[in-house]
Design a protein that fits this description.
The complex is a heterodimer. In chain A, helix 1 runs antiparallel to helix 2. In chain A, 78% of the residues lie in helices and 0% in strands. Chain B is 67% helix and 2% strand. In chain B, the strands form two sheets. Chain B has a two-stranded antiparallel ribbon with strand order 1-2. The longest helix of chain B has 35 residues. The chains are: A mainly alpha, B mainly alpha. The interface between A and B is medium-sized, with 15 and 23 residues. The complex binds protoporphyrin IX containing FE and copper (II) ion (CU). The site of protoporphyrin IX containing FE (HEM) has 25 residues of chain B, from helix 8, helix 10, helix 11, helix 12 and helix 13. Chain A: This is Cytochrome c oxidase subunit 4.
């Protein structure tokens, strides 16, 4: 560590590249923002439309799951490079939690 | 600040260890306290075997027997085996990946002190009205019925020490992901580092369920909740699920680092690259995954129903496949190697048949219908001691010999080591082999005595005699340690002569900054590669010599843990209506959170070891190395 800090000099090409990447990222964020609003609207609609509870609950859970993924990948930078290990651990955790809940539901509470 | 070579007074040394954040010193703390608890658990084991030595014995009363049995299991798993393995993880894996310390040195120290105070708290139960007595599994129906505070000592003690373990696990994950030296790709990591990594991931995923279970237990017992109370609409089986969702991964948290230690030993002392390195790595990861899908094999007889039993039986049997892959890879590593039978290698060779025997009985128990016969009999006791003693404890003994020089700079006696091995190994098989048959003959586990007319006398007497041999082996080990420390004969970088990984390329013990220059890793077994290419220094470097940033020591982790320890007493005695209990609870928490606040507000930027100091220190190291070569030859060859 503690070696002298360096100023960052970017070449023109690098600068263009970064700019383009930021633009793509921004587009992704705006798209997912729009999608999230849309998903929220669906959620409100199914409740307002007075569907059966057996339909509403799974739909809302599903929409929530999609929102979490959008949030993680587009706003919390999981789509960026170097997040593979983190994704691996998150999905392992989700997998373990899912196994536990599934077992509990099927053999304890059913 | 390169003052680590100067002799310090006794008080200064103690203060140094109380405040250290150096992974090598924390390793020594783990080894000493884990070793102490290992002796405590060992004495409890001897008391159990004395009680069962003959029919109708009255050495221990039924109640005391339950306490001794519970504390034996709990101590051995949580306070002995796991901390001693954490000692080796701390001592070795940062060195193996070429790091200067773990990612969070402060948290590393906090993890240790939490474990330590949790362990002390649990053991104080002996002096404060009785130890827990519901088995190390603490099944809720027994635990809720248990009188006194024994169970509360269990739940609060394990909560505190469990936080410590969780912190340690997260720390190793971050360290191994982020702090590998240049060139140290995942597929070049030594197997001990790999197993540390996977075991840490298991800690991360398995301890929270235990914490949740214990949390419910604390609320049921101390604050009038009814999670497990069937009469109030609770469900006692849920505790069993929570416990084993944690408990089965826990046995892999123990055995994987043991596998890692043995993998290192096989390669070093066969003077060969590990056979099937890639397969060993993937088998480790697979075992880690499967470990979470099998917990209900501990609950076959609960009445989960045939479908659940069949699913969990199959999942359990699958685990034998990656385990078998490992066994064959080790055998093929030895095959055709240039073998030297040092003490660690003897342990490693003895481990294979012992552990396989335990694995085979495991698969037998995985057959659900057969398990109706075996469950809660001495067969189970035989199984888990074959895997835990034949696997984990042999690895701990082997690792103690293997890494002692790296941790302390001296070499344990090979001769006494062999005596320990033979006493321990023969004693182990004598004690536990015969218990398979006691189980098949119907002897139940966790019962304090048996009748003279049941025909179990002889086998129990043999089993107790074996325990005595193991105790003798451990005493010889202690003598060995004392003699080695008193003699204090220093050894060089690579005392075994055949080290392969980075930890053997630096002095024993290493300077506090580990590597003056971060090494560049050019392949699997980097030190071996450099040796083979005639590189005298044993390393190539990834950076020029420059200032090194190091963290300051801190007393805060000790204080945070002490606060929790005090608060636990308050929480426990609060239910007895003592007026002082609530202030103690609040005071303890105030100490904990207050010291956290101090830590957050006070900047502690660490210090720099300058280039000049590094050069001076390097001259000292060279001088000492020359003195070693000039004098008696240190190490094995
Ligand atoms: C081939 C791998 C293994 C299989 C198939 C296996 C299977 C089993 C099964 C089915 C049981 C429950 C028996 C019963 O209570 O009726 C059991 C108990 C146990 N096993 Fe294993 N096991 C394996 C490896 C291990 C390892 C590696 C360890 C530890 C390092 C271990 C430690 C234990 C312990 C401590 C218990 C008893 C827990 C208790 O009731 O107190 N096992 N094993
Ligand atoms: Cu298990």
């Amino acid at each position: 560590m503690a070696h002298d800090t360096h100023d960052i000099h970017r070449s023109r090409a690098e600068f263009e590249f970064i700019k383009r990447k930021r633009a793509t990222e921004m587009r992704g964020q705006l798209t997912s923002f729009a999608m999230m609003i849309f998903l929220t609207l669906i959620a409100f609609t199914v409740v307002a439309a007075d569907f059966s509870n057996y339909l509403i609950v799974p739909i809302i859970l599903l929409l929530a799951a999609i929102q979490v993924v959008l949030q993680l990948y587009n706003f919390m930078h999981m789509s960026n490079k170097g997040h593979g290990m983190m994704a691996f651990f998150m999905f392992s955790g989700i997998f373990v939690a899912f196994t536990i809940v599934l077992t509990m539901v099927t053999i304890v509470w059913w | 600040m390169s003052s680590n070579s100067q002799k310090k007074g006794f008080g200064a040394t103690i203060w140094d260890y109380l405040t250290t954040v150096d992974h090598k010193k924390i390793a020594i703390l783990y080894l000493i306290s884990g070793g102490f608890f290992f002796l405590v658990g060992g004495v409890e084991a001897m008391m159990i075997r004395i009680q069962l030595m003959k029919a109708g014995n009255d050495f221990l009363s039924a109640g005391t027997y339950n306490e001794v049995l519970t504390m034996h299991g709990t101590t051995m798993i949580f306070l002995a085996a796991m901390p001693i393995l954490l000692a080796f993880m701390n001592a070795v894996s940062p060195l193996q990946i070429g790091a200067r310390d773990v990612a969070f040195p402060f948290l590393n120290s906090l993890g240790f002190w939490l474990f330590f105070f949790g362990g002390i708290f649990l053991n104080l139960s002996w002096f404060l009205g009785g130890a827990p007595d519901a088995g190390w599994t603490n099944y809720a129906s027994l635990a809720l019925a248990s009188e006194g505070h024994g169970i509360d000592f269990y739940s609060l003690g394990l909560t505190i020490s469990g936080f410590g373990t969780l912190i340690a696990g997260i720390n190793f994950l971050v360290t191994i992901i982020n702090m590998r030296a240049p060139g140290m790709t995942y597929m070049r990591m030594p197997l001990f580092t790999w197993t540390t990594f996977v075991a840490s991931a298991l800690i991360l995923l398995a301890f929270p369920p235990l914490t949740v279970g214990i949390f419910f237990m604390v609320f049921d017992r101390l604050f009038g909740a009814n999670f497990f109370d069937v009469t109030m609409g609770g469900n006692t089986i849920i505790w069993e699920h929570f416990f084993w969702i944690f408990g089965h991964p826990e046995v892999y948290i123990l055995i994987l680092p043991a596998f890692g230690i043995f993998s290192e030993i096989f390669a070093i002392f066969s003077r060969k690259r590990l056979f099937g390195y890639t397969a060993l790595v993937f088998a480790t990861i697979l075992i880690g995954f499967y470990g979470f899908m099998v917990w209900a094999h501990h609950m076959f007889t609960v009445g989960l129903g045939p479908t659940a039993n069949a699913v969990f039986a199959l999942a359990t049997m699958i685990i034998a496949v990656p385990t078998g892959i490992k066994i064959f890879n080790w055998l093929l590593t030895i095959w055709g190697g240039n073998i030297s039978f040092t003490v660690p290698m003897i342990y490693a060779v003895a481990f294979i048949p012992s552990f396989v025997a335990g694995g085979v009985t495991g698969v037998m128990q995985a057959i659900a219908p057969l398990d109706y016969q075996l469950h809660d009999s001495y067969f189970i006791v035989a199984h888990f001691h074959y895997v835990i003693v034949g696997g984990v404890v042999l690895a701990i003994l082997a690792g103690t010999h293997l890494y002692w020089p790296k941790m302390f700079g001296t070499m344990l006696s090979e001769k006494l080591g062999k005596w320990t091995f033979w006493f321990f190994f023969i004693g182990f098989h004598l004690t536990f082999f015969i218990q398979h048959f006691l189980g098949l003959m119907g002897m139940p586990r966790r019962v304090y005595t048996f009748g003279a007319d049941q025909g179990w006398d002889l086998f129990n007497a043999i089993s107790s005699a074996g325990a005595l041999l193991m105790a003798i082996g451990v005493i010889i080990l202690l003598v060995n340690v004392v003699m080695t420390v008193v003699k204090g004969e220093r050894v060089g970088n690579d005392p075994w002569g055949d080290g392969r990984t980075l930890e053997w390329a630096i002095p024993s013990p290493p300077p506090f900054y580990n590597f003056a220059q971060t090494p560049l890793v050019r392949g699997l077994d980097p030190y071996w590669i450099e040796k083979m290419e005639g590189n005298k220094e044993g390393m190539v470097y990834a950076e020029p010599l420059g200032d090194i940033h190091m963290p300051n020591g801190s007393f805060i982790p000790f204080v945070i843990s002490l606060g929790m320890f005090i608060a636990a007493f308050g929480a426990m005695y609060h239910t007895d209506g003592h007026a002082w209990a609530l202030p103690v609870l609040i005071g303890g928490l105030a100490i904990t959170f207050g010291s956290m606040l101090v830590r957050s507000l006070k900047d502690d930027l660490g210090f720099h070891v300058t280039k000049e100091e590094l050069i001076a220190d390097n001259e000292r190291i060279q001088r000492e190395a020359r003195a070693l070569e000039g004098g008696k030859k240190g190490g094995l060859k």
